[in-house]
Amino acid sequence: MNVIVMKNADEVCKRASELIGNVVKENKNAFLGLATGGTAEKVYSYLVEDYKNGNLDFSNCETINLDEYIGISEDHPQSYGTYMNERFFNHINIKKENTYVPVTTGDIQKELKKIDEMINSHGGADIQLLGVGVNGHIAFNEPSEKLNSKANVVDLNEETIKANSRFFNSIDEVPKKALSLGIGDILKSKKIVLIAFGKEKKDAIKELLKNDFITTNCPCTFLKAHRDVTIIIDKEISDEIGI
Ligand code: F6R
User: Fold this and answer.
1) Could you give the 3-state DSSP secondary structure of residue 182?
2) Would 91 be classed as within a structural domain?
3) What are 23-65's pLDDT values in tens digits?
4) Which residue segment(s) compose the domain that 82 sits in?
């Protein structure tokens, strides 16, 4: 694993946007695996800035998102579909039909099949952006005895519901379920870049970087089994865990 320490959150996001931008520059048909959440927001600002400066062309790119809540409408202000449109897709020259955020308002089984076909036909994302939950989840694969390999419906755990309540009016409004890509789907990606900043993520990053084992109790540890992973963290985390 390649580990990069940047001085602050902004720099973490900038570096991640450069790695994604490089893939887009090298391959105009790139299939990008995208994440939402607070951590990824600035990555999209930097990619949009780079696009507006004429450095990136998304016209032939395709995208797939990691997850979507179940129980809120597609156009809900906190849906991940809305997030992606507002922060990224509406500001670049990507074709909307080439973007995919899981749709959770219709036939979910059909959607899971569609995701499987999409990932397999591309042989995985050319680059997958990941954030990490305070509990070590990647996408919405929560710590548990067993993890899904493929996309499935998952229950969000209490820690995640609490962490995500900052985006809703009250904790009761946070959906309890989501559709999430599985660990196997993520590991099929050709390159993975995981970003994290702020000391609340330190335990997850410690399990990932300081211990040798892989455990379903901390799903991000599965990234140790992938051959092209870059972890970008801020100095705050690196100081906390001593790297
Ligand atoms: C979002 C996702 C999640 C988030 C994680 C961190 O698409 O898959 O795994 O990356 O919950 O969320 P933030 O960045 O809000 O701390």
Assistant:
1) coil
2) yes
3) 999 999 999 999 999 999 999 999 999 999 999 999 999 999 9
4) 7-194
Q: Look up 122 and say whether it is catalytic.
A: no
137 is an active site residue:
yes
Residue 41: inside a domain: yes
Q: Which of 142, 185, 234, 236 is catalytic?
A: 142
Structural domain count of the chain = 1
> Left if phi > 0, otherwise alpha if psi is -120 to 50, otherwise beta: which for 155?
beta
67, 36 Cβ separation under 8 angstroms:
yes
Whether the Cβ atoms of residue 181 and residue 115 lie closer than 8 Å to each other: yes
User: How high is the pLDDT of residue 11?
Assistant: 98
How many Å lie between the centroid of ligand 1 and the Cα of residue 167? 12
Residue among 34, 36, 201 to mutate when testing ligand 1 (max atoms within 8 A of CB): 36
CATH number of the domain enclosing 79: 3.40.50.1360
Distance, CA 136 to ligand 1 centroid (Å)? 10
Helix (H/G/I), strand (E/B), else coil: 144: coil
Structural domain includes residue 217: no
- Tell whether ligand 1 has an atom less than 6 A from the beta carbon of residue 133: yes
| pLDDT tens, position by position, 177-235 | 999 999 999 999 999 999 999 999 999 999 999 999 999 999 999 999 999 999 999 99
The C-alpha angle with vertex 166 and arms to 236 and 47, in degrees rounded to 5, equals 60
Q: How confident is the model at residue 7, as a pLDDT?
A: 98
